[in-house]
Amino acid sequence: MGLSRLFLLRFITCLVLFSMKFDTHEATQFFVGGKENSWRAPTSPNMLNEWAKRERFMVGDELVFKYDSKTDSVLEVEEGDYNTCNTTKPIKEHHDGNTTINMVQPGEFFFISGAIGHCDKGKKLEVKVSPAPSLANSKFAFWPWYYITSTQPLIPDDSDNEGSLDSGAVGTNAMVFGVPIMVMAIGFICFMNFVFKL
């Protein structure tokens, strides 16, 4: 009889623990402009930014720029240089034709084309990156498992530019265990063992 009660107790505890919800953010890869070859002179000046406003970028996501490396480039710039299309002092410059930017921290980031005159025609992008979901701001904060996304690049950046998005960095997901729920679960098991022993 005692063995069947213990089995029932463990079975119910396992059901409770495994029914708890996961709060995750899977990293998403975004082709700039929504298509594979959208980093080119847009048909309307605000086309790229209108696309960006429709998307929700979060830490850990990636921006992919596809372009002809012989005639174009991607420049990450300060907001002032973005507004004036100044290509002379970029934070970072990319010429490979297939640039992937890993968004490793929240904030606003600005990109313009390095090709002469293209930025003035609207070939520029402003991206607002939100923090990844965390236990503090999650509607499922009481669940025991949740994901956070590391804001530190795995590959160190040699530049001293703060606020820069590092194209060599990789956003990683780490699974963190909610200690309060585990303490409650262990307490419940101990209490039930005590009750069944009486």
UniProtKB/TrEMBL annotation:
<protein>
    <recommendedName>
        <fullName>Phytocyanin domain-containing protein</fullName>
    </recommendedName>
</protein>
<comment type="similarity">
    <text>Belongs to the early nodulin-like (ENODL) family.</text>
</comment>
<dbReference type="GO" id="GO:0098552">
    <property type="term" value="C:side of membrane"/>
</dbReference>
<dbReference type="InterPro" id="IPR039391">
    <property type="entry name" value="Phytocyanin-like"/>
</dbReference>
<dbReference type="GO" id="GO:0009055">
    <property type="term" value="F:electron transfer activity"/>
</dbReference>
<keyword id="KW-0449">Lipoprotein</keyword>
<feature type="transmembrane region" description="Helical">
    <location>
        <begin position="174"/>
        <end position="196"/>
    </location>
</feature>
<keyword id="KW-0812">Transmembrane</keyword>
<feature type="domain" description="Phytocyanin">
    <location>
        <begin position="28"/>
        <end position="131"/>
    </location>
</feature>
<dbReference type="InterPro" id="IPR008972">
    <property type="entry name" value="Cupredoxin"/>
</dbReference>
<dbReference type="GO" id="GO:0005886">
    <property type="term" value="C:plasma membrane"/>
</dbReference>
<keyword id="KW-1015">Disulfide bond</keyword>
<keyword id="KW-0472">Membrane</keyword>
<feature type="signal peptide">
    <location>
        <begin position="1"/>
        <end position="27"/>
    </location>
</feature>
<dbReference type="Pfam" id="PF02298">
    <property type="entry name" value="Cu_bind_like"/>
</dbReference>
<keyword id="KW-0732">Signal</keyword>
<keyword id="KW-0325">Glycoprotein</keyword>
<keyword id="KW-1133">Transmembrane helix</keyword>
<dbReference type="InterPro" id="IPR003245">
    <property type="entry name" value="Phytocyanin_dom"/>
</dbReference>
<keyword id="KW-0336">GPI-anchor</keyword>
